[in-house]
Specification:
The protein is of the alpha/beta class. It has one domain (2-177): NAD(P)-binding Rossmann-like Domain (Rossmann fold, 3-Layer(aba) Sandwich). It has 8 helices and 8 strands; from the N terminus they run E-H-E-E-H-E-H-H-E-H-E-H-E-H-E-H. It has helices at residues 10-21, 42-47, 61-67, 69-72, 92-95, 113-117, 137-147, 160-177, and strands at 2-6, 25-30, 40-41, 51-54, 76-79, 103-106, 127-131, 150-155. The chain has a 6-stranded parallel sheet. Strands 7-8 form a two-stranded parallel sheet. The protein starts with a strand and ends in an 11-residue tail after the last helix. The structure holds NADP nicotinamide-adenine-dinucleotide phosphate (NAP). NADP nicotinamide-adenine-dinucleotide phosphate binds at residues 6-12, 30-32, 35, 55-58, 60, 64, 80-82, 109, 112-113. The site of NADP nicotinamide-adenine-dinucleotide phosphate has 23 residues, from helix 1.
């Protein structure tokens, strides 16, 4: 897939690097493309992308979506951001009306980047819980699998807050267990 990765820090750089290693075409979109070899402007990264990953500060998401609404609308957009100082961790209530035809997914936000960098934990494959529409979810699941995690769809966009609750649990558990921890759904 051709993936536009917006932001090339801990999370964008880690996920983008692993997708490149599994054969995807990753185009980093940066405000200053000179900061990373091969990076492009945000317009260029969005223009050619089949899937967009948002990996920028959570507090910048609403402005980013407003500024780039035309390029984002109609695309699969994976939101890995957390607005840790905001009233909610995600900004979908403000974003979805601006890009009504985008397929918004909440994914890759519940663990630290170090889990995505080394996803096998205790010899096991963790699950990645995510939310978003049924239409298009196969692409998102493939991208989760290519990072090395098992995708578990929690539900439609209305379950974004449920997914965010897992980040709060993850953060709380890191105090006693360190950052290289993750979750698994057990079923019969
Ligand atoms: N770190 C983690 O373990 C982790 C895990 C899950 C989710 N997240 C979430 O992922 C997001 C990124 O975290 P990070 O740790 O990767 O941050 P980071 O290392 O600080 O990287 C942030 C990236 O976003 C870019 N950026 C900043 N403001 C921007 C804006 N207004 N428009 C476009 N690009 C902008 C930065 O580029 P410039 O050089 O231009 O500033 C940089 O490339 C956050 O929302 C965070 O909550 C982080």
């Amino acid at each position: 897939m051709r993936i536009g990765v917006i932001g090339a820090g801990n999370i964008g750089g880690t996920l983008g690097g692993r997708w490149q290693a599994t054969g995807h075409e990753v185009i980093y979109g940066l405000r200053d493309p000179g900061k990373r070899e091969g990076a492009r402007s945000i317009d260029e990264a969005l223009g050619g992308a089949e899937v967009v990953l948002l990996a920028i500060p959570g507090g910048a998401v609403v402005d980013f979506v407003n500024d780039n609404a035309k390029a984002l609308d109609g695309k699969t957009v994976i939101d890995a951001t957390n607005n840790v100082r905001g009233a909610a961790l995600n900004s979908w209530a403000d974003c979805q009306p601006v890009v009504p035809n985008a397929r918004l997914y909440r994914a890759f936000n519940i663990y630290g980047w170090d889990v995505f960098a080394a996803p096998t934990i205790g010899g096991q494959q963790p699950d990645l819980f995510y939310a978003g529409p049924d239409e298009g979810h196969e692409d998102v699941e493939r991208l989760i699998s290519d990072i090395g995690l098992r995708p578990v769809r929690v539900g439609d966009a209305d379950q974004a807050g449920t997914v965010d609750g897992l980040l709060r649990l993850w953060f709380t558990l890191t105090r006693d267990h360190g950052r290289h921890i993750a979750f698994k759904l057990l079923t019969d």
